[in-house]
TrEMBL record:
Involved in coproporphyrin-dependent heme b biosynthesis. Catalyzes the insertion of ferrous iron into coproporphyrin III to form Fe-coproporphyrin III. InterPro entries: Ferrochelatase, Ferrochelatase_C, Ferrochelatase_N. Fe-coproporphyrin III binds at residues 59, 128. It catalyses: Fe-coproporphyrin III + 2 H(+) = coproporphyrin III + Fe(2+). Fe(2+) binds at residues 191, 287. Pathway: Porphyrin-containing compound metabolism; protoheme biosynthesis. This is Coproporphyrin III ferrochelatase. It comes from Streptomyces abikoensis. CDD domains: Ferrochelatase_C (cd00419), Ferrochelatase_N (cd03411).
């Protein structure tokens, strides 16, 4: 008997992420990969390309995923979890299909996937499941044995995600001039998505009124605001969930208000300062570095409004530990045990298996790692 925590039946973990360009020549091909068949206006693409060129054509997301990989491997090793960790992306090298092919070549047949998106939505959940189905179809066409791939549950309300975010919010408050700290508002931000996609996010029974996407973000915002209240003793600090990084055609409704409009509105109401808290994101990637640190920060400067931006969890060891807990929890569930399923807030732990109709696509396509998966 070994007293090492068991990750059986899983034999590998796959970090599944978005990917990003690593130099100026990568930017246009990367954007073509992202937007293939998705009808994003050319104007928006040129603009987003410029965001990347401002940073030398390099997205921070790949280095951040490399750091997360190291943190996961360190944590697993320290805790005796002998699960190898691989990394594959939707839109840039290392591409998911290549990684999955390597995993099969290395003998892995039960794979657990961790996505760098903590919440339910088509873009953050089902689209990754579609990418997994595409990769499995490619391996099948090559005549390779197919691994079974499961996906870890959404972790937005896990303490290993929420606690570092709350601490980062307090740290950002501490970077504001002392005299505006007590009165500073909190602006929790996440990626805007079409309201139609928000309304149908998560399982069907929660559809409508922003669906699981908005409900989950509101729960995290409340938890962080409450932690800040406890720590600072400021009882009625205003906070709001706002959105950023809108794209798509202007006549299609997306979640609002935009962070920049929100800064203007609270300035007009007399807010002395704002802390921007990007709860929607797992690392300080381009949406954070450009849309918040560059664009929203410039807006705030124009308004004469002091702002600070909270760090995302990134490769925080507490987040790596949370991933380990979630992996061991899911492994135990797959073995037929009933492990403790840790979650803060009012929503409870999210489902392990996306039910049929969860975060539907506009045009149905095969998606793996869910109840409607065509794969085992
Ligand atoms: C919910 C959500 C997340 C959070 C969850 C998650 O992390 O998955 C996210 C993350 C990210 N989005 C990213 C980049 C882009 N997203 C785009 C486009 C879009 N995102 C959408 C949603 C989301 N996106 C949507 C509804 C679109 C429009 C249509 C479509 O394509 O579905 C476009 C095209 C141009 C534009 O429209 O801006 C780009 C370049 C990067 C990489 C950043 C880097 O390089 O550091 C990351 C992590
Ligand atoms: Fe995006």
């Amino acid at each position: 008997m070994s007293d090492q925590p068991s990750h059986a039946p899983y034999d590998a973990l796959l970090l599944l992420s978005f990917g990003g360009p690593e130099g100026p020549d990568d930017v246009v091909p990367f954007l073509e990969n992202v937007t293939r068949g998705r009808g994003i206006p050319r104007e928006r693409l040129k603009e987003v390309g410029q965001h990347y060129f401002l940073f030398g054509g390099v997205s921070p997301i790949n280095d951040q995923n490399r750091a997360l990989l190291s943190a996961l491997r360190e944590d697993f090793a320290a805790c005796g979890v002998g699960l190898p960790v691989y990394w594959g992306n939707r839109n840039w090298a290392p591409y998911l299909t290549d990684t999955l092919r390597q995993m099969v070549a290395d003998g892995h047949r039960r794979v657990l996937a961790l996505t760098t998106s903590a919440y339910a939505s088509y873009s953050g959940c089902r689209q990754y499941r579609e990418n997994l189905a595409d990769a499995l179809a490619a391996l099948e066409a090559e005549g390779l044995p197919l691994p079974r791939v499961d996906k870890l549950r959404h972790y937005f309300n896990h303490p290993g995600f929420v606690t570092p975010m709350a601490e980062a919010t307090l740290a950002a408050l501490g970077r504001l001039p002392e005299e505006v700290r007590a009165g500073a508002h909190l602006a929790f931000t996440t990626h805007s998505i079409p309201t139609a996609a928000a309304d149908t996010s998560g399982p069907a029974e929660g559809h409508g009124d922003g669906g699981a996407y908005v409900a989950e973000h509101l729960d995290v915002a409340r938890l962080v605001a409450e932690a800040v209240r406890k720590e600072t003793g400021v009882e009625d600090r205003p906070w709001r969930l706002v959105y950023q990084s809108r794209s798509g055609a202007p006549h299609i409704p997306w979640l609002e208000p935009d962070i920049c409009d929100h800064l203007e509105a609270v300035r007009a109401e007399g807010a002395p300062a704002v802390v921007m808290v990007p709860i929607g994101f797992v690392s300080d990637h381009m949406e954070v570095k450009y849309d918040l640190d560059t664009e929203a920060a410039a807006k705030a400067a124009e308004l004469g409004l002091p702002v600070a931006r909270a760090a995302t969890v990134g490769a925080d060891p507490r987040f790596a530990a949370a991933v380990r807990e979630l992996v061991l929890e899911r492994a135990a569930t797959e073995r037929g045990e009933r492990p403790e399923r840790c979650a803060l807030g009012s929503l409870g732990p999210s489902h392990d298996l996306c039910p049929v109709g969860c975060c539907p696509a506009r045009a149905p396509r095969p998606a793996a790692a869910g109840a409607d998966s065509p794969y085992a």
